[in-house]
Each structure stands twice: as structure tokens, then as C-alpha cells.
Amino acid sequence: MGISKVTGIAATAFLVTSVSLCEMGMRTVMLPFLVTSFVAFIVTIASHNAINLPWILGKNSVGRFPLWSIVLFGPFLMLARAYAMAKRYMRKEAVHDKIVEGLYLGGWPFLLKHLPPGSPSVIDCTCELPRSFFVPADEYLCLATWDTRAPTPCQIELAARWACQKRSKGKSVYVHGAFGHGRSACVVCAILVALGIAETWKDAENIIRERRKIKMNVLHRKTLEEWSNHRVSQKKGN
Q1: Which residues lie closer than 8 Å to 60 by C-beta, 6 or more apart?
Q2: CATH number of the structural domain spanning residue 175
Q3: Does residue 137 share a domain with residue 39?
Q4: Which H or E run includes 103?
Q5: Can you tell me whether residue 142 is helix, strand or coil?
Q6: Do 96 and 208 belong to one domain?
Q7: Residue 79 has pLDDT above 80, yes or no
Q8: Total count of domains within the chain
Q9: Strand partners, 96
Q10: Minimal CA–CA distance to 7: which of 56, 47, 34, 35?
Q11: What is the model's pLDDT at position 7?
Q12: Alpha-carbon span 30 to 73, nearest angstrom
């Protein structure tokens, strides 16, 4: 289920709850539910595939949220972090897996032990989760993307080049989303192609699947195809 559907259902539930509390005369109690419903409806619209505005949450290039974002979207941001943490402990899978030497795919590293060994450079594909304090800003690339959505072809190309530069310097690279199944896997596919390990993104997807359970959807594959076609056209132009 896409993020816009999940937040839409949650927004409706909070709205119904606030109306019920209001009818019961509990107007003070209803306010938090009403505010949370309003925020959830904004996220629902902004995360819809036809609109897709991840920047609305305000996450900047160093993975931080400004004060206005914390005030406006606080309920959503807190719920997103709580959900990611709770689901981490409920899952039996590894936080991350080594896809090839020097390239890892996994989930949001909210604890230092979640990072792969060797102080890797980090590509963060989330728009709803912050950069952890132990990840250096100069070894960090933010590709703010909604859950279940895909980075743009330009973002994918930026990440592929950035990862290749880091690998050329002997640095390992860790690509993560919330759990390392969709948007981050999409980026790793492109990196494998850029590194020359896979000939096509489809080959790269098969390589990843041998090492980690992923859930790339139609949008991820469509975006990778667009990126791949643009990459081929650029090579022909040169």
C-alpha cells in the first residue's frame, strides 16, 4: 500500500475521532486529533504519485529538518520515526546486507551499530527520517523521496556518480531507505550499473535479490528504465 493511501486512511480516522469527541463535548481533547488529521491530509496530497512533493517536509541537504517543519509536521515526523524503530525490532531481517564489496543496502541507521563496518559514506533515500548524528555531513548524500516512491532519474544519476567517486577513493557506500526494500534498492541498481558490475538495471536487481529481500514496485522500475535510457542516449551523444 502506498504512503498516500496509508496516510489518507490515518487522516480520516483522526478526523472521525475528532468529530466524535467534539460531539461528546470534549473539544479540548479533540484538538490534537484534529491537528494530526490536518497534517496527515497534507502528507496524503503531497505524497500522491501525481503530485509527489517530498520537499514539503523541509528536509535539507544535510538531513536536518528546520524548525517550521518540526512545528508543522511534528506529528507525522515523530510517527514516522516511531514506526521505523518499532518495525525494526519486529523484523527478523538484518539491518543491512552487503550487495558487493564496498556497497551495502539497508534501513535507517538510528543507532551506530546499524551502520556497516568501515565508516561508510551514506546515501539517504528518505524524506521523513533525519540523518543520524554519527553520520558525517561530508560523507552524506540526501535523496529526499517518499516511501514507496522513486527518486527522479536525475537524483539516481547523482547518487550513482557520487557512489562511484567514493568507491574510487576506497570508501564503502551504504544506501538506505526506511527498511532497505524499495527506493534505496532502486538507487543501488543504478550504482551497480555505474560501477560496471551489472550490465542493466534488471541484472542489478537480480544481483540484489540474491542478497537481500527487496520490494521494488512498478514506479521504481519505470524510473530506472528512464534513467537507463537517458544514460544510453548520453553515451551515444558522446
Answers
A1: 66, 142
A2: 3.90.190.10
A3: no
A4: strand 103-106
A5: strand
A6: yes
A7: yes
A8: 2
A9: 106
A10: 47
A11: 83
A12: 18
